[in-house]
Amino acid sequence: MVKPDLKVRIGALELKNPVTMASGTFGSSGEEYKGLIDLSSLGAIVTKSITLKAREGNPPPRLVETPSGMLNSIGIQNDGVDSFIKDKLPSLGKLRTAVIVSIAGHCIEDYAALAAKLDKVKRVDALEINISCPNVKGGLEFSREPGSASEVVAAVRRSTGKPIITKLSPNVKDISEIALAAQEAGTDAVSLVNTFTGMAIDIDSRMPVLGNVVGGLSGPAIKPIALRMVWETSRKVRIPVIGIGGIMDHKDALEFIIAGASAVQVGTATFVNPAAAMEIIGGIEKYMRGKKIKNIKEMTGCLKA
Amino acid sequence: MNQAKGKILSNEEAKPGYYLMAIKCPPVARAAKPGQFLTVRCGNATEPLLRRPFGFHRINGDAFYILYKVLGKGTKALSSMKAGDAVDILGPLGNGFPWPKGKKDIVIVAGGIGVAPLAALAEKLLKDGKKDISVIIGARDRKSLLCREHFEGLGIKTMVATDDGSCGKKCFATDVLEELISVRRPFIPLIYACGPGPMIKAVAHVAKKRGLEAYGSFEEYIACGVGACLGCAIKTKSGYKLVCKDGPVFNLKEMIW
Questions:
Q1: For a Cys-Cys bond, which of A10, A17, A119, B9 suits A160, CB 3.0-4.6 Å?
Q2: What is the CATH code of the structural domain delimited by B106-217?
Q3: What number is the ipTM of this complex?
Q4: Nearest-Cα residue of chain A relative to residue B74
């Protein structure tokens, strides 16, 4: 049998396979993982969210393990967009992997300015709009209501010709409503879900474990909820959906694809096993050979329900 | 830095609640330096989820030892593993202890399980011909006192402090440090420390007062271990630093308490 075709499309962007690295879990350029895995084998790298100006991040402790998951409250620590373009992007230059740059802002103008700056940078293949970070004051605001989400997307759309992915928060009443609003405002795809807000308490000190009190829950604990949200959303939108949430192995990834995702993002799993994404790519390919599926696109949304 | 399969050579209870595990893992062991650390995946389930970090307790050719206290789900799972079992190792990670320049007295201050990485340090210092090494070990009581025989076996002057006086002096390790520094004059040692936060802070205080160079190994919850997730930030005079990538060893004068 010929090699299964794993290529997927996100707007005008073609990925060699549907497995991409989730923002915030893979550094600003993936260089931390260079010696451990073959970055060129990945579908795409979504870089750590950048802001217009540098951000110090939240006070420690910034993470804690919870049952089958983890809470983080990093707070978008980053050196700002200019430093990112100058210091981080060059190391991605030769990589044969798509580079999706995640952007975050405090106001709509921030997002527009970031998109305009990155629009001129050739190595940037697409933008992911992070309107769903639970760890920044105001970070969730834009993804809470369809109106504000669509304003951000429209502003970014006006500022760049590059493909846009909008990353959505699960901490909303109806995530598919936000996805529809983002679609109407011109996003090329939606990625979901970002982390669920949560907390942990030290019963001896009676203090919150995280310096920021609350953080975002990720990992296998959130997978069933994320999967349901991807299924609900993909049935309503016509743009590609990128599935995120506790994907640990190829079986998890396939569940998201069957539910309706065109691609997936792997995050927490990389902490547990740096080779997780590569093993997922291999696992999907093996599954397709076994089931005699020629093209991964046949799999998206093939749920029998 | 490598992710490699290691083979457990032995895993024995050293003291009640404390285990000593020997792991054969050539790509990690051969590259390891005292003060660096590794992470272990404690099983294949999603619980415990994250890899657990350990300092290299002893580095010996193709193998290394970790010394750990059973504290939670990860260390509990590790303690039930047997010789011959395979474990997923990532390391060596972070930076080792800075090496002393020239002829210098060295004082090593250990608190509780913090003694673990200091054994590898002492062994390497001896190998490099450093002779003037003193070790101070602090522990809650006799039952949780670790590595005393090991340091003494290496011929290193070893002092002990316990909270309840059941072994050595009834005081903190840093009280012994203060005494040692004030008795011997002139005595301008380089200090290495690893232990609970309050102990490291007390060491930093003594070092500052006496104008001594001191390094401490720090601990935080670790997710990636390689500097990608920014989860293990710690406050220093030059902003947040990462325990996993910039540390785990820091110059104590750089820290903000």
A1: A119
A2: 3.40.50.80
A3: 0.94
A4: A65
